[in-house]
Amino acid sequence: MMPTANDLKTVTDMREDAIGLLNAVNKKKNPIVIMHRNSPQAVMLSVEEYNKLIEMVDDYMDELIAMDLEKEPYKPDDYVSEEEALKELGLK
């Protein structure tokens, strides 16, 4: 996504109208880029959009782990019984 002029705000904008920026980011569902001295410094997201990103990253990482587990052959010696695992974790 390429930010538009409406999605670029300055530190001064943030200082002078923080509530307005919060309302805008929640209303539009688009991130707002906070600029300082013509350089992007931060991105403001709604909590909803942030949670979507976190969920996507979690799903991606789970997929990578699953792919790694499918590649590597495991031997019976690699496993422990449920009883051993509980004992190691101090749950039994």
From TrEMBL:
InterPro entries linked: Antitoxin_Phd/YefM (IPR006442), phD/YefM_antitoxin (IPR051405), YefM-like_sf (IPR036165)
Query: Which Gene3D superfamilies does the record match to this protein?
Result: YefM-like domain (3.40.1620.10)
Similarity section = Belongs to the phD/YefM antitoxin family.
- Described purpose of this protein according to its UniProt entry: Antitoxin component of a type II toxin-antitoxin (TA) system.
Official protein name in the record: Antitoxin
Source organism? Candidatus Woesebacteria bacterium GW2011_GWB1_39_10b
